[in-house]
# Entry
Amino acid sequence: MSIQRLIESKVQAALAPTHLEVINESYMHRVAPGSETHFKLVVVSEQFEGQRLLARHRALNTLLADELAGGVHALALHTLTPAEWQAREGVLDSPACRGQSGVSG
# Structure
């Protein structure tokens, strides 16, 4: 199973999100083509109600500890309640990696 699919499966099982995006942004970084090292997660879950941002991020970092200890180098986390998601006009794009121009294969 790919790392992206594994992340999707774990988040689905643990948080029952109403909206989930797991975006592989590895291509934006200095890694080999097809790598799974940098991800952006957009997670909208009722389980985030009453939680501060730090608690939401800690929950995901704990859930994905094995992936972070392995090949995943970075996670950009966007954690929202359904009400916060409704009020938002989308998620910001990730910035370009400073080393992007020297992508190695």
Q: What stands out?
A: Helices lie at 3-15, 53-63, 65-69, 82-87. The chain is about 35% helix and 20% strand.
